[in-house]
Amino acid sequence: MARRTKEEALETRNSLMAAALEQFCEKGIARTTLSDIATAAGVTRGAFYWHFKNKAELFEALWAQLRNPLDELADISENPQEPQPLEKLRELIVLLLQMVVSNPVHQQIFRLMINRNDLDGELQEIGAHMQLMHGQFRARTERILINAIKRGQLPADLPVELAAFMLHSMVDGLIANWFAGDTRVDMKAQASVIVDAMLVMLRQGFGDSAALVAESPIVS
Amino acid sequence: MARRTKEEALETRNSLMAAALEQFCEKGIARTTLSDIATAAGVTRGAFYWHFKNKAELFEALWAQLRNPLDELADISENPQEPQPLEKLRELIVLLLQMVVSNPVHQQIFRLMINRNDLDGELQEIGAHMQLMHGQFRARTERILINAIKRGQLPADLPVELAAFMLHSMVDGLIANWFAGDTRVDMKAQASVIVDAMLVMLRQGFGDSAALVAESPIVS
DNA sequence: TGATACATACAAACGTGTATGTATGTAAAT
DNA sequence: ATTTACATACATACACGTTTGTATGTATCA
Q1: Which residues of A fall within a CB distance of 8 Å from B131?
Q2: B126 FRET partner, CA 20 to 30 A, in A11, A12, B104, B116?
Q3: 8 Å CB contact between B152 and A62
Q4: Residue of A1 and A149 predicted with greater confidence
């Protein structure tokens, strides 16, 4: 077979990207070959090289699509006038956790971000970009925490940098470990419980009294 | 040059392993070639193939050494008679965090464990083994939590599985994010503060009152 | 008829594994 | 104490499979 109509060509291009995404998530970017992608898409490498210069260009196109949901998510709660910043933060993290475990597209995004370490050569820029988004998320969390402090919803002496780092690390770890599959935890159902516990940590975990917790009996 | 004395041969073997470990941590296992290792060790691939069958065998030898510190760490607090399990858990996690940021050997271990996803082919067994150690750590945490509940140091209605999952995820995330380098947090100095906050979360984060935290003002 | 949308064929690079060469240590024979 | 014989500890060279990139062929759309 040979030349198709424009729509059919677009279809094969989309097939290539979809197949690539799937394989990237399964085996990682480095270990999926162009033949893998082409075969999975039902074409040959010829088709691939017609639509893309190389694997890096395809991944850039992929990432340009995939980052949209993340960008949207990031924009949700960036309002310094928000009267209930802590509640908004709660909703944001719950939403994030639930999306990751239920929405396959988001699963793919986060799988790629978790394995962003194997981005070499021309893909390093994208890896740096992921790193940047990662950092922006933390900065955003910090701003929300500061806003919450201003509004008396978090203690004034909360170490903001540290707290944001811990929050962010915990979310990352939860997602990564859920992906690793060593969990019998139903994260979709428990997301609220998880985030509530995190917020309690923010509100009561950093005072002077916190240091004595391990030694004393519970007060209930 | 050719045949050396036995001691010199052992030296080159050690050089190969040390060079390999360094490269593995830098570029990942998959992306370091046998030439990389040999060159970094100041020899050729001939020397490599004399001492090791292939990259997998070298990594197995490496891991056999590196897992020792982890095994020791795991054995520390496995005592059901421990009267202060929560305090022991606190010490364990603080120790873990501080070791990771200060001890280069432990850094290498955890770098390898974090990137255990790129273990393919013959190395999958080791990847599975790492996964297993990972799971055992969580099981151990669960047992400590149960012991702490028995001794009235944690609330009886604590969801043990979930709490252990969260603890574990947070530690993983902290280490991974600290490695990622996007942190101005001095984790060695703050380790105590971090773990104290985590324990507050365990003690007070899972009750019915926790769900209302985001909406109410702080009580201080 | 010419540009398009591929498939096919080919060349080059890279990494692995193995076969071979070789100088040296080492133990036994003399 | 030498010499001899062999195992050792590598370096070098080659054969192979795999992946990439490109060049070419070709049917079809427009």
Answers
A1: 180, 182
A2: B104
A3: no
A4: A149
